[in-house]
Amino acid sequence: MSKNIAIFASGSGSNAERIVEYFSDSKEINVKLFLCNNPEAGVIQRAERLNIPLVMFNRQQFKSGEVVDILKENHIDWVILAGFLWLVPKNIVEAFPNKIINIHPALLPKFGGKGMYGHFVHEAVVENKETESGITIHLVNEHYDEGAIIFQASYPVLPTDTPEDVAKKGQVLEHKHFPEVIEKAILG
Ligand code: GRF
Predict the structure, then answer these.
(1) How far, in Å, CA of 168 to CA of 171, rounded?
(2) Whether pLDDT at 128 is above 80
(3) Closest ligand 1 atom to Cα of 174
(4) Distance between CA 79 and CA 101 in Å, rounded?
């Protein structure tokens, strides 16, 4: 029986698209659904182009358990957060114990927590004169960026790098590793 995954995204959705491409021929893993909380998000166009069903939801639906019901109705086995910015509520964490995976654009535990997302992370890395940064893929619990780390990869940060340069290096690593790490986590 193949495993169904749902991908949550709040923004552009480039990782979501990579994951769809990677599993497009897979018999074991099926990207069943995209879920999005932001009516302005680029992932909406991607869903259409990739022909992946998309569910839009608001905070109330997220917290009340309506989103869990949608995941269950769609027989979702694993939840992937790919640039998703809201804290995952207890009802979802409990419905998918150790089956929610997030990607964070820094080497956690550094540069994590509430408010540390997207360009804020890369700005902080440059501001702090870090000589390296990276990506972290981890399981999700009820706290921002605190679940068990399953994968990290790093890249050098040069003194001349801007936050945009750092973001680009991170994105290359995210696109390269995220689908493979998901595959390993699900199939063992
Ligand atoms: C990625 O850098 C991810 O690590 C972070 O948000 C970004 C999402 O990019 N959490 P995209 O929407 O997949 O292009």
Answers:
(1) 5
(2) yes
(3) 4
(4) 6
Q: What is each CA distance from 76 to 6, 71, 119, 166, in whole angstroms? A: 6, 5, 31, 34
The question of whether 104 is a catalytic residue gets the answer yes
Percent of the chain with pLDDT over 70: 100
3 state SS of 45: helix
84 C-alpha to center of ligand 1: Å? 8
Alpha carbons within 13 angstroms on the beta-carbon side of residue 101 total: 24
DSSP 37: S
Structure tokens at 165: 């340069």
Supply the pTM of this predicted model. Answer: 0.96
Q: Are strands 132-139 and 54-56 parallel, antiparallel or unpaired?
A: unpaired
For residue range 159-179, list pLDDT tens digits in order: 999 999 999 999 999 999 999
Pocket of ligand 1 contains residue 105 by CB under 6 Å: yes
CA angle 184/10/18 to nearest 5° reads 40
